[in-house]
Amino acid sequence: TDAYGVVCVLPAPVLTVGSEEGTGKVKLTWDPVEGAQRYVIYRSTSEDGDYIRMYRQKGTSYVNVARIEPHVTYYYKVCAVHENDAANSPCSEIVSGSWEPPTEEVK
User: Fold this and answer.
1) Torsion angle, CA of 77/33/24/56, rounded to 10 degrees?
2) What are the φ/ψ torsions at residue 104 (nearest 5 degrees)?
3) Relative to the CA of 83, which of 12, 49, 59, 90 has its CA 20 to 30 Å away?
């Protein structure tokens, strides 16, 4: 008899973008994906550009604190990773955000 393996692909995370209170840095959040062991965050400087892997983590939020310039728009996507690499999710929809540092009040 033939044996067939079935691979169940995880659903893509649903990503939202905001800013971290106090710093104004880009903050991504998403709901947990059932079956995901980790999440991989990717970033690009253009929506259709090449995305680089920024971070790999277990949590469901990420603040972009490294390699970020103020007032520049960055594009992000997140993929859910299963313990079986063949079952990883497609990446989330692309979202964009920029770091808008807080302005100091002039007295």
Assistant:
1) -60
2) -80, 140
3) 49
HSE-CB for 69 with a 13 A CA cutoff: 6
- Torsions phi, psi for 87 (to 5 deg): -110, 15
Instruction: Please report the pLDDT score of residue 27 as a whole number.
Output: 97
DSSP string of the chain, one letter each residue: -------PPPPPP-EEEEE-TTT--EEEEEPPPTT-SEEEEEEESSTTS--EEEEEESSSEEE--SS--BT-EEEEEEEEE-SSGGGPPPPPPPEEEEB-PPPPPP-
Q: pTM here? A: 0.86
Confidence (pLDDT) at 5: 56
